[in-house]
Amino acid sequence: MTGTDAVADATGILLVDIADRVAVVTLNRPERRNAFTWELVQLLGDTMRALDADSDVDVIILTGSDPAFCAGVDLKEAGSDGGVFAHAHELPTRGLFDDTEKPVIGAINGATATGGLELALTCDFLIASEHARFADTHSRVGVQPGGGVTVRLARWIGVPRAKQMSITGNYLDAATALAWGLVNEVVPHDELLPRCRAIAADVVGNDQRGLRRIIKTYDLGGGASEEHAWEIERAVSFQWLSAGVDPADVEARRAGVVERGRSQQG
Questions:
Q1: pTM exceeds 0.70, yes or no
Q2: 83, 38 contact by CB (below 8 A)
Q3: pLDDT per position as a tens digit, 122-145
Q4: Would you identify the CATH topology of the domain 3-204?
């Protein structure tokens, strides 16, 4: 068992499985719809940082134990001792794993609400089960968002649709989430993890330093004006070029790209 596994297995509320350079992280409080306790928040943050530093991992898949992905903050705990709300000042500014370099695929297996939606939006992209549903219920609970929903949701689906979700608190089904651009794909429930693993395998086959640099460039430019985003991309590109390009390495990669393209064309 790796060091990362040992951290995650300490309480059983977070599971980690590592195989073929892919880590699957599973929120495991199904009886509470995987809602966040302060303990789970800390454990998830520590685990994601450990996986980001793990040389045996290239891709992370984040999911929940059925029937839900994550219901957000555990309001029962919050109503008792404040729970996550009592520690809000200790939370990272931009989500529990916004500073990770490795790609994170969200495997959305069921209901995803409020803080759970904010967690999902921290992933690089989402693949959804047909059972997935999405809601921002901050307004129903009377809680001001602090995990980025008013920032990220608008950038993913547009301001009017984001406002509709936040103002009504209503759920979107998986088909609507796909039509609105909140998720990339919707698959049969039993095929969710296999599909995410297949995507992850495609990522593992790429140049890891390069793809992490590309992810960072997307993240830096996502909140900038188009002009500034161009400047960011060119700066990163020139920095890469200035380090020198090995033609032999490019040729080796080219051959792999050609072969992969042929296989995907059937």
A1: yes
A2: yes
A3: 999 999 999 999 999 888 877 777
A4: 2-enoyl-CoA Hydratase; Chain A, domain 1 (3.90.226)
